[in-house]
Design a protein that fits this description.
The protein has helices spanning 3-8, 29-40, 47-55, 59-66, 68-82, 100-109, 119-126, 141-152, 170-190; strands at residues 19-22, 43-46, 88-91, 111-116, 161-164. It is of the alpha/beta class and 191 residues long. The chain has a single domain (13-181), classed as 3-Layer(aba) Sandwich (Rossmann fold), CATH 3.40.50. It has a five-stranded parallel sheet, sandwiched between helices. The chain is globular. The two termini are 16 Å apart. The chain binds shikimate-3-phosphate (S3P). The site of shikimate-3-phosphate has 10 residues, from loops.
């Protein structure tokens, strides 16, 4: 296969792809992602921030005034832009893999790292809840988190590396992802 064909089929080695961090709200994608990008001297992008820039309002306000569907549409565009170049770490919104189109873009164009955490830890990390439109109105936020995790189990099935961050500092999370990523780079240069 020529290099161009490889690129077209999305068959690039993991180390040649941008790194995408996926997972539920509050698992530490943004803080670990920033640390990881810094350690690799890669660019850092966050799909929530890209959507906010494109629309000109906060995520919470987009949900309130334009609805979740419009947010999801913008999120797909943001992901496409974010994955268009290598040497990037991309933190993704927790609901981004809800769409098959996004799951495919991740599968074909990113080295996908899934972060997880216990529901109780997630609750501590997502406060203040008013910035989280899908949790803000819940009478019992912990139960809501558990229910959503259950509902979303299937959307987080596809990844290249996974890590439970419940008891880890973001710097440690970044260090562990970096260790894994270096082995991918090593495998590539030897294979
Ligand atoms: C969402 C997660 C949020 C943000 C929006 C919806 C979700 O991103 O995209 O509030 O559906 O889980 P974070 O995971 O970065 O908090």
């Amino acid at each position: 296969m020529t290099a161009a064909t490889l690129e077209e089929t999305g068959d690039k080695a993991l180390a040649d792809r941008p790194i995408a961090l996926i997972g539920f709200m509050g698992v530490g994608k943004t803080s670990a992602g920033r640390n990881l990008a810094h350690a690799l001297a890669y660019g850092f992008l966050d799909t929530d921030r890209l959507v906010e820039q494109a629309v000109g309002m906060s995520v919470a306000r987009i949900f309130r005034t334009q609805g979740e569907l419009e947010f999801r549409r913008q999120e797909t565009l943001a992901l496409r832009e974010a994955l268009s170049k290598p040497r990037r770490v991309v933190s993704t919104g927790g609901g981004l893999p809800l769409l098959e189109e996004n799951r495919r873009a991740l599968r074909e164009g990113a080295a996908v790292v899934l972060l997880t955490a216990a529901p109780e830890v997630i609750l501590q990390r997502v406060r203040p809840l008013k910035r989280r439109p899908l949790l803000a109105q819940a009478p019992d936020p912990l139960q809501r988190i558990k229910d959503m995790l259950q509902e979303r189990m299937d959307i987080y099935r596809e990844y290249d590396f996974a890590l439970d961050t419940s008891e880890l500092h973001p710097r440690k999370v970044a260090e562990l992802i970096l260790g894994w990523y270096r082995t991918q780079q090593g495998a590539q240069s030897h294979g």
